[in-house]
Amino acid sequence: MLKVHINKQLFHYDLEVDFTATSEIIVLFGPSGSGKTTILNSIAGLCQPDSGEISLNDQLFYGDKNGSLPTRERNIGYLFQDYALFPHMTVEKNIRYGVKKKGTELNLILEKLLDVLGIRHLLSKYPHQVSGGEKQRVALARALATEPSILLLDEPLSALDSETRTECQNELIRLHELWKIPFIIVTHDMDEAKKLGDRILFLEKGTIIKTTACNR
């Protein structure tokens, strides 16, 4: 279980949130500047709260007295809005980047990802040779290939056309059913939030003003 209880002074307001997540999809929804990405970055260790605590499955990520666990030790997958693929690497090398497992065990993980995401035919291509939807799938495969304990997604589908976006939404749901780990997703699209989320946390100026359960 993910537990987040943090405070952080931002430019226009104080961020103060308190929530938990089991093996479910949590959507962070709210206007730009409401603190959604700051929450993701705090979980990932890319920024540090001023106070509070973050833990996952009894592993302390951040605590007032214990300090902050380095990002590399948090076993987190993070899918950024721009996908952050390495342009000089093939799709296959991008997916394998940072994966510690080798041999048969790794190949089993990759085979599952390639099948679910339908990107086997892209392995020898470079990022500039694939479409936006394909880049999203490659970035998702790379994030999950490390077998993270949680997956963070910052507006992962915002740059896609409507048809591709719908396809990728379905793939995210299918991958979540297979991996059974917490997914924390930021989106500005309410229809997308309702489709993907088990729960939606509505944020305004750094505060969770409402939580809604969804019936996916």
TrEMBL record:
<keyword id="KW-0067">ATP-binding</keyword>
<protein>
    <submittedName>
        <fullName>ABC transporter</fullName>
    </submittedName>
</protein>
<dbReference type="Pfam" id="PF00005">
    <property type="entry name" value="ABC_tran"/>
</dbReference>
<feature type="domain" description="ABC transporter">
    <location>
        <begin position="1"/>
        <end position="216"/>
    </location>
</feature>
<keyword id="KW-0813">Transport</keyword>
<dbReference type="InterPro" id="IPR027417">
    <property type="entry name" value="P-loop_NTPase"/>
</dbReference>
<dbReference type="GO" id="GO:0016887">
    <property type="term" value="F:ATP hydrolysis activity"/>
</dbReference>
<keyword id="KW-0547">Nucleotide-binding</keyword>
<dbReference type="InterPro" id="IPR003439">
    <property type="entry name" value="ABC_transporter-like_ATP-bd"/>
</dbReference>
<dbReference type="InterPro" id="IPR050093">
    <property type="entry name" value="ABC_SmlMolc_Importer"/>
</dbReference>
<dbReference type="GO" id="GO:0005524">
    <property type="term" value="F:ATP binding"/>
</dbReference>
<dbReference type="InterPro" id="IPR017871">
    <property type="entry name" value="ABC_transporter-like_CS"/>
</dbReference>
<dbReference type="InterPro" id="IPR003593">
    <property type="entry name" value="AAA+_ATPase"/>
</dbReference>
